[in-house]
């Protein structure tokens, strides 16, 4: 029998880092029309289910989003609606049938403050890491243009951690521009990827403990592989 799915970690008022990949890493966007249609269905689904979108990037075979749902379960409904409508549109345009996405989307609950801002940078720097653009603002399908004041994007609701970068829009833009110039440290990149892989809660130990107490679910990551047979008491409890 297949293992039951672990409940998705969600907590009111906290954003989630979301990623969804094409099946077998196949292309999920082929031409500009695909990107535009995805954003159209994204805007419609998130508005209908009251999910605030803080950052996004659409890559060739996957997407990254940072979003805060109004209530638990709203994100799954919005992503389900988005998926159905986009896949139908994609299949009709490209004369194909069948699934497009690799299973259900992955999500990682994110603590506010610096963690949310780090994930926002991670998302908008993705095209640079993939060598698709020299600078994040050179890539068209991203929320970075809104955050840098290059154009108004009605899809984007700036996260409070972004708004806290300055008392006025010009100051926030310049501060964020400098943050984008500096790539994320390797340990932050590794943490963001591992917490997403395990679909846990990226944040401080205090934040994770609070979630575990309130939700009854594991919030921190677990080491890869089997535990050592000769683990000491300190190892097993620490």
From TrEMBL:
User: SUPFAM superfamilies recorded for this chain?
Assistant: Transposase IS200-like (SSF143422)
The processes (GO biological process) annotated in the record are: DNA transposition
Disordered, as annotated region: 215-238
Spell out the Pfam families in the cross-references.
Y1_Tnp (PF01797)
Q: Transmembrane residues, as ranges?
A: none
Q: Domain of life here? A: Bacteria
Segments forming domain Transposase IS200-like: 11-126
- Which Gene Ontology molecular function entries are recorded, alphabetically? DNA binding; transposase activity
In terms of PANTHER family, this protein maps to: TRANSPOSASE IS200-LIKE DOMAIN-CONTAINING PROTEIN, TRANSPOSASE, Y1_TNP DOMAIN-CONTAINING
From the Swiss-Prot or TrEMBL record, give the protein name: Transposase IS200-like domain-containing protein
* Species: Arenimonas metalli CF5-1
């Amino acid at each position: 029998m297949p293992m039951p799915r672990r409940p998705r970690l969600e907590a009111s008022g906290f954003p989630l880092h979301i990623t969804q990949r094409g099946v077998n890493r196949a292309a999920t966007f082929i031409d500009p029309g695909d990107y535009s249609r995805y954003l159209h269905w994204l805007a419609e689904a998130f508005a209908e289910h009251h999910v605030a979108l803080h950052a996004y990037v659409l890559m060739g075979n996957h997407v990254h989003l940072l979003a805060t749902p109004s209530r638990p379960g709203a994100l799954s409904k919005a992503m389900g609606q988005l998926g159905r409508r986009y896949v139908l549109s994609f299949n009709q345009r490209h004369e194909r049938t069948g699934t497009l996405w690799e299973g259900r989307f992955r999500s990682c609950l994110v603590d506010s403050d610096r963690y949310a801002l780090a994930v926002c940078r991670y998302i908008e720097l993705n095209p640079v890491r993939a060598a698709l653009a020299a600078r994040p603002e050179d890539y068209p399908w991203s929320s970075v243009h809104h955050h840098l004041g290059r154009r108004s994007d009605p899809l984007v609701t700036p996260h409070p951690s972004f708004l806290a970068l300055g008392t006025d829009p010009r100051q926030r833009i310049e501060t964020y521009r400098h943050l984008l110039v500096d790539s994320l440290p390797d340990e932050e990149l590794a943490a963001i990827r591992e917490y997403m892989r395990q679909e846990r809660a990226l944040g401080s130990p205090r934040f994770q403990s609070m979630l575990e107490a309130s939700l009854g679910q594991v919030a921190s990551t677990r080491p890869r592989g089997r535990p050592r047979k000769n683990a000491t008491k300190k190892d097993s409890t620490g």
